[in-house]
C-alpha cells in the first residue's frame, strides 16, 4: 500500500512538472528577438492572465485561429502577465486545463520594464493582442477583447 501511495505521488509530481515545462519564462527583449525571427511569418501575441475573465473568455478564439490557419505562415504566442514570482507551476496547470497549444510564456520581468518595451502607450490593460505582420516595422497592439471575426479580419488586412 505504501508503494502505491508513493507511486501515485510521484506520478502527480511528474504531471505538475510536465505542465510547467510547457510554459517558459521570457523577457521583453527575448520576445522582441523571437518576433524578429520569421520574416515571412505573421505573429499573434496574446497577453493574458489567469485572473482576467475577459482573457479566459477570449483564449479559445486564438486556439481556433491557430487551428483554422494551420499550415499558413502564422504563429500564435501566448504570454501570461501573471506575477512571475508565483512561478510556472500555476500557469502550467492553467494551460493544461484550458488546453492551450503553441508557444506559451510567462513574462519574467516587472510591468514597468515590459509594458513600454511592447508598446509605449500600453498601461497593462488586459487582454491585449500584439499583431506583427511580416516585413512591417510597426507592430499593432489591440487593447480589447477580440472576436474570431475581428482577428481574422486583422490577419487579412495585411
From TrEMBL:
Residues spanning the membrane: none
Keywords: Signal
Signal sequence extent: 1-20
Domain Thioredoxin: 20-158
Stored InterPro entries: AhpC/TSA, Thioredoxin-like_sf, Thioredoxin_domain, Thioredoxin_ResA/DsbE_sf
PANTHER family noted in UniProt: PROTEIN DIPZ, THIOL:DISULFIDE INTERCHANGE PROTEIN DSBE
Name this protein carries in UniProt: TlpA family protein disulfide reductase
Amino acid at each position: 500500500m505504501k508503494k502505491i501511495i508513493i507511486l501515485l505521488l510521484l506520478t502527480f509530481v511528474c504531471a505538475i512538472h510536465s505542465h510547467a515545462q510547457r510554459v517558459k519564462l521570457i523577457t521583453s527583449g527575448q520576445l522582441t528577438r523571437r518576433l524578429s525571427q520569421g520574416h515571412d511569418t505573421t505573429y499573434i501575441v496574446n497577453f493574458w492572465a489567469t485572473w482576467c475573465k475577459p482573457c479566459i473568455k477570449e483564449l479559445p478564439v486564438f486556439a481556433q485561429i491557430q487551428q483554422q490557419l494551420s499550415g499558413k505562415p502564422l504563429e500564435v504566442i501566448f504570454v501570461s502577465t501573471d506575477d512571475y514570482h508565483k512561478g510556472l507551476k500555476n500557469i502550467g496547470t492553467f494551460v493544461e486545463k484550458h488546453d492551450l497549444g503553441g508557444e506559451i510564456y510567462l513574462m519574467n520581468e516587472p510591468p514597468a520594464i515590459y509594458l513600454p518595451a511592447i508598446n509605449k502607450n500600453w498601461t497593462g490593460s488586459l487582454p491585449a493582442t500584439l499583431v506583427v505582420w511580416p516585413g512591417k516595422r510597426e507592430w499593432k497592439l489591440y487593447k480589447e477583447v477580440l472576436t474570431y471575426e475581428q482577428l481574422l479580419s486583422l490577419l487579412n488586412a495585411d
